[in-house]
């Protein structure tokens, strides 16, 4: 695989930022605890499915104290439609216990502490810090991992490898938005099975071997059409 060179990468990241200047997380949340819970629930599940259950859950339990009052059995009844709901229920209850006992009910805001909490790994901690504080933390989910390989931004066998490489390659001023931008692009345009090249505002800077040949529109027309 021939990866993007430095010039191509910088052009791509600039175009990505232009296309998604203020990318927003699509999970619904009310405070830092509910955000962390939503991210934990979203692992190997869609944001849409998580939002369906948290709409009611967070009306009842959006703090660690309320979550402990709710209890594992009732929490499980709320999230039973989510993948791996049993493990996630255990993690969230244990998380609430630790936050109450050690952190006065507040979610820690530093990476090293976050990854010691139940249900919180590197991706979850990075996503949390990125969304909660607009920190330059790059969470590598399935979309980010896939697009880095497909678009030849960088390669790696694991998400931490991709995270490390993106931290080296992405310009500092673009780091706070790059992960969410890639997520949205992978979710709605550069989809896994049938990428929508005809609607892609990044078509001109795409290096993918899967890039479709579009003969009916020029590159400029494609970009203008996609940005409308």
In short:
The chain has 228 residues and is mainly alpha-helical. It has helices at 6-19, 32-42, 47-60, 64-79, 85-103, 111-114, 122-133, 142-150, 159-169, 175-188, 219-227.
- Domains (count): 1
Treating each run of at least 4 consecutive H or I residues as one helix, how many helices? 11
Strand-and-helix sequence, N→C? HHHHHHHHHHH
The residue-averaged pLDDT reads 94
- CATH superfamily descriptor: Hypothetical protein, domain 2
Category by helix and strand content: mainly alpha
First-residue to last-residue Cα separation: 33 Å
List the helices and strands and how they pair.
Layout: H1 6-19, H2 32-42, H3 47-60, H4 64-79, H5 85-103, H6 111-114, H7 122-133, H8 142-150, H9 159-169, H10 175-188, H11 219-227
Describe what this molecule looks like in 3D:
The protein has 11 helices and no strands. The protein is an all-alpha fold and 228 residues long. It has one domain: Hypothetical protein, domain 2 (Endonuclease III, domain 1, Orthogonal Bundle). Helix 2 crosses helix 7 and helix 3 packs across helix 4. The radius of gyration is 19 Å and the shape is elongated. The relative contact order is 0.13. The C terminus is likely disordered.
């Amino acid at each position: 695989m021939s990866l993007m060179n430095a010039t191509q990468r910088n052009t791509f990241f600039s175009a990505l930022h232009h296309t998604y200047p203020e990318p927003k997380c699509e999970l619904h949340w009310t405070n830092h605890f509910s955000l962390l819970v939503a991210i934990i629930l979203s692992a190997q599940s869609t944001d849409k499915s998580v939002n369906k259950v948290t709409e009611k859950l967070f009306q009842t339990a959006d703090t660690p104290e309320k979550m402990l009052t709710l209890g594992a059995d009732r929490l499980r009844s709320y999230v039973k439609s989510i993948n791996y709901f049993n493990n996630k229920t255990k993690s969230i209850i244990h998380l609430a216990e630790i936050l109450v006992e050690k952190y006065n009910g507040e979610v820690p805001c530093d990476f090293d502490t976050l990854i010691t909490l139940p249900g919180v790994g590197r991706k979850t901690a990075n996503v949390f810090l990125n969304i909660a504080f607009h920190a330059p933390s790059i969470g590598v989910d399935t979309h980010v991992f896939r697009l880095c390989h497909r678009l030849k931004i960088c390669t790696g066998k694991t998400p931490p490898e991709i995270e490390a490489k993106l931290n080296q390659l992405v310009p500092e001023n673009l780091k706070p938005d790059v992960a969410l931008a890639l997520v949205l692009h992978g979710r709605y345009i550069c989809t896994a099975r049938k990428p929508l090249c005809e609607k892609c505002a990044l078509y001109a800077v795409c290096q993918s071997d899967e890039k479709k040949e579009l003969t009916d529109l020029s590159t400029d027309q494609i970009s203008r059409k996609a940005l409308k």
